[in-house]
Amino acid sequence: MAIELITFPESGFTLFLVSICKELGIDYKLSTPAKLEDIKTPEYLATKHPFGKVPVLIDDGFQIYESSAIARYLISKYQKTKTSTILIPTDLQKAALVNQFISVGYSYFSDPAKKLISQEVNEKREGVAKDPEVVKEACEELNKVFDIYEKLLEGKDYLAGEFSLADILHSTIMQCIVHFGHGNLIENRPIISKWWKNLSERECWKSTIAENKHFST
Question: Which residue ranges does the record assign to the GST C-terminal domain (predicted)?
Fold first, then answer.
């Protein structure tokens, strides 16, 4: 029985969760609200997400919202049941390292990335001119972050040593950065470039992007 993900395909959270499903071999279907207003209705707020957001997961009658919670639920339930891929190790110390880099991503990487991506999204999809100063500031912040990542990744193929949920989280953000024309932030750094190559050439990731017209064109 396929799980159901209520989400908009143009959301980066969709890439994140679909990639997890593919890595773990989980059957899924995407349910896309007809319009943005549909996730703000009293019924949706009462039965799906009280803050009027996506994604929402429905799995055999069980329902949960928030992408990080959904990701951990899927891993806890399905990891190693259909594929050999391990996204969060059972080893305590290895799992701690994965969680450390997830926290690093949320604490230091995602905020400047969101600042940059939101400017590009507003211009490309909403027709609102981006603010050059905000773009410049976001790129400067990301350059500082990437300088640190270049050191963190030295001698490693992946953040925690082996491919994990931490890498998928970063893949989602980096795909958006590249898609909206800022791939130079990655290309100028050989270690990060190698890491991104490792991530973006995974079959599950290539399949995720190929199936999503919002990020494949």
Answer: 91-217
DSSP 145-200: HHHHHHHHTTT-SSTTSS--HHHHHHHHHHHHHHHTT-THHHHT-HHHHHHHHHHH
Q: What is the tens place of the pLDDT at every residue in 166-214? A: 999 999 999 999 999 999 999 989 999 999 999 999 999 999 999 998 8
| Beta-strand relationship, 3-6 and 56-59 | antiparallel
CA 152 from centre of chain: 20
Instruction: Name the residue range of residue 31's domain.
Output: 3-78
Buried b (16+ CB within 10 A) or exposed e, 103-140: ebbeebbbebbebbbebbbeeeeeeeebeeeebeebbe
Question: H or E stretch including 47?
Answer: helix 42-47
DSSP summary character for residue 211: T
